[in-house]
C-alpha cells in the first residue's frame, strides 16, 4: 500500500511517518490472524495505518478513546489544541475529527470506534486480538492500566506495540518505556525492534516457554518492578 503523505499529513496526530510504516507492516502481518485494537484514537492518524492493514486482511480494528483528551492535551497543558476544544461542552472533543478521518480514508466499514475509557471497554472483553497498540494516556497509571487490560487478550504469536518509548528521561515521559520494560520482564514477549519511539513486541507462542516460571512471576506488581 502506498500512502498519500500529503493527505495523511492533514490529520492531526503525533505519529512519525517511519513509525507509521512499521505500525502498518506489523498490523498487516498480525491481522492475518484476527482483529487489531488500539487505545488512543485521537483524530485517527494511527487508525489510518492500522485500519488500512486490517482492510487488506478483511478484518477489523477496534479503536478506543473517550475522546476527551489525555492529561497533557487539556487547556493550559503542553499539547492542548484549541481547534479540538468544544466551547459549548467546555471540553476537548476529538470524536468528530476521528469520524471525518475514517470517512476520508474509506475506513468506516473497517474501524469500530469504541467511545469510552479503555478500562470500561476491557471489562467484559473476550475477543482474542492479533495486535494491541497502546497510545492512550501517558501517565504511569494510565499506561500500565492499558497494558494490564489488553496485553492478556493478545493471542500467542500476536503483537504488542507501544508508542512514545523514551529510554532517556530527558527526551520524554517514562511511562510507556516502563510498560515496555515490564512487558519484556514478564517473559511473555520478545522484542521485535524499535522504530524511533515505537516499540514492537511479539507474544510468545504456546510452545515457546519463558525461561522459568519464577522469571515470569518475579514482578507481580508494576510498583515492585519500578
Ligand atoms: C496520544 S493520543 C493518541 C494519538 C493517536 N494514536 C494518533 O496516532 O494520532 C492519546 C489519546 O488517548 C486518549 N485517552 C487517554 N486516556 C484514555 C483512557 N483511559 N481511555 C480511553 N482513551 C484515553 C485521549 O483522549 C487521546 O485522544
TrEMBL record:
The keyword Transferase applies. GO terms for biological process: DIM/DIP cell wall layer assembly; methylation. One of its GO terms (cellular component) is plasma membrane. The keyword Cytoplasm does not apply. Pfam families: Methyltransf_24. One of its GO terms (molecular function) is methyltransferase activity. Gene3D superfamilies: Vaccinia Virus protein VP39. Keywords: Methyltransferase, Transferase. InterPro entries: SAM-dependent_MTases_sf. PANTHER family: RHAMNOSYL O-METHYLTRANSFERASE. This is Methyltransferase domain-containing protein. It comes from Desulfocicer vacuolatum DSM 3385.
Amino acid at each position: 500500500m502506498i500512502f498519500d503523505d500529503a493527505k495523511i499529513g492533514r490529520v492531526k496526530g503525533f505519529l512519525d511517518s517511519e513509525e507509521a510504516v512499521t505500525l502498518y507492516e506489523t498490523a498487516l502481518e498480525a491481522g492475518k490472524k484476527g482483529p487489531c485494537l488500539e487505545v488512543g484514537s485521537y483524530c485517527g492518524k494511527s487508525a489510518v495505518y492500522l485500519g488500512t492493514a486490517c482492510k487488506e486482511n478483511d478484518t477489523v480494528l477496534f479503536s478506543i478513546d473517550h475522546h476527551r483528551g489525555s492529561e497533557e492535551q487539556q487547556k493550559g497543558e503542553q499539547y492542548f489544541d484549541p481547534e479540538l476544544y468544544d466551547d459549548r461542552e467546555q471540553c476537548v472533543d476529538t470524536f468528530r475529527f476521528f469520524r471525518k478521518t475514517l470517512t476520508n480514508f474509506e475506513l468506516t466499514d473497517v474501524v469500530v470506534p469504541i467511545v469510552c475509557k479503555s478500562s470500561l471497554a476491557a471489562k467484559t472483553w473476550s475477543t482474542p486480538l492479533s495486535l494491541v497498540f497502546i497510545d492512550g494516556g501517558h501517565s504511569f497509571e494510565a499506561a500500565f492500566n492499558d497494558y494490564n487490560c489488553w496485553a492478556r487478550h493478545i493471542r500467542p504469536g500476536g503483537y504488542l506495540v507501544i508508542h512514545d518509548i523514551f529510554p532517556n528521561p530527558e527526551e520524554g515521559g517514562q511511562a510507556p518505556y516502563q510498560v515496555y520494560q515490564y512487558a519484556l520482564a514478564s517473559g511473555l514477549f520478545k522484542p521485535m525492534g524499535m522504530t524511533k519511539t515505537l516499540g514492537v513486541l511479539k507474544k510468545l507462542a504456546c510452545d515457546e516457554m519463558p525461561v522459568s516460571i519464577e522469571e515470569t512471576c518475579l514482578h507481580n506488581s508494576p510498583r515492585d518492578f519500578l
